[in-house]
Amino acid sequence: MIVSSECAELLPAISNVDRILIARRNLRDLALFLSVAASRFDYCADFTRNDRSAFLALLSGARGRVTSYRVCEQSKMRARIYTDLLGVRVRDMHTIDYNLALLQPLGVRAASSAPHLDLPPSAYEEAGALRREWKMTSPYVILHPGATRREKLWEPGRWAELIEQLGRNDGLDLVLTSGPSPDEQAHIAAIKSKVHQQIIDLSGKTDLLTLAALIGQARLLVTVDSAPMHLAAATRTPQVVLFGPTNPFHWRPRESPALILQGKSATPVTEFSPTLPRFAMSQISTETVISAMDSLLSLRAAAQTS
Q1: What SS3 class is residue 38?
Q2: Which residues of 167-182 are buried (b: 16+ CB within 10 A; e: fewer)?
Q3: What's residue 197's pLDDT?
Q4: What are the strands, taking DSSP E only, across the chain?
Q5: Which label site among 17, 24, 100, 149 has the fewest CB atoms less than 10 Å from its CB?
Q6: What does the alpha-carbon distance between residue 37 and residue 256 come to, in Å, rounded to a whole number?
């Protein structure tokens, strides 16, 4: 498996892979190219269809090189690299289903579509250490407001309202998480400047594996369309997810109990279409998010007492 360096933190949680190579997008990739060229693979499935992945597919020397027919629309020259151009496109399918479809020429059929991570003990140890350091003794809710794209961000004032609402529940610890990027940290700072409620700020203090372990033990995650949403899906943690410019048809979690909010709808979205328009995050009301949170927290409490 070849992955980008941005995903490297998650690799210890991915099992049943014989060898992993990392693409770093710099001169160190020369070693990657040489390794792929020397291995002479039997099959190669290209999930990304960019120039780098096409070059790696060519270097693999595989007798079967698989990708979507959409590569023809990007570059007819690049399309000649592949032996199998499948009639699937990601815009018509959930992303998981699209990726699994590309494995069918390799004989992989009826594979589970449920995301799964084998978190190593060290991830739970790091999560436990953080809980002890911050004296997290109660069940907790994680709020992850950040995203790499600014148009996915919800207003800081509305996040602050959620925190104040959750803070009225004395039986919950409130945990704030985010990535380390300057934009995400600025967004977190704006939220904290409007909050009077006590909150545990772990923003920028966890790697992806530790964050996954924390999410896996949380009562609830509230987030935008970002990596933690997929971590919650892999750990079956209930979550409320705010979608705006991206289409939940392609990216929504399908395994964990999840309520999807988008646009002006006062209730969670239950019908999904590949042709949904873009929505501004500002259209999602605070009241709708609070209602969704209360619903999942009530269900979780009922399940634990029954």
Answers
A1: helix
A2: eeeeebbbbbbbbeee
A3: 86
A4: 2-4, 21-23, 43-45, 64-68, 84-86, 140-144, 173-176, 200-201, 220-224, 239-243, 258-262
A5: 17
A6: 40
- The pLDDT, as a whole number, for residue 302 is 56
From-to residues of CATH 3.40.50.2000 in the chain: 121-305
pLDDT along the chain (306 residues), means of 10: 92 93 90 94 94 95 96 92 95 95 92 93 97 95 94 96 90 94 94 93 95 97 97 96 96 92 95 92 97 89 55
The CATH code belonging to domain 121-305 is: 3.40.50.2000
Amino acid sitting at position 85? L
State the Cα–Cα distance between residues 201 and 196, nearest whole angstrom: 13
d(CA 61, CA 130): 47
Distance (Å, whole) CA 106 – CA 44: 9
pTM for the full predicted model: 0.92
Distance, in Å, from the CA atom of 55 to the CA atom of 206, rounded to the nearest integer, reads 34
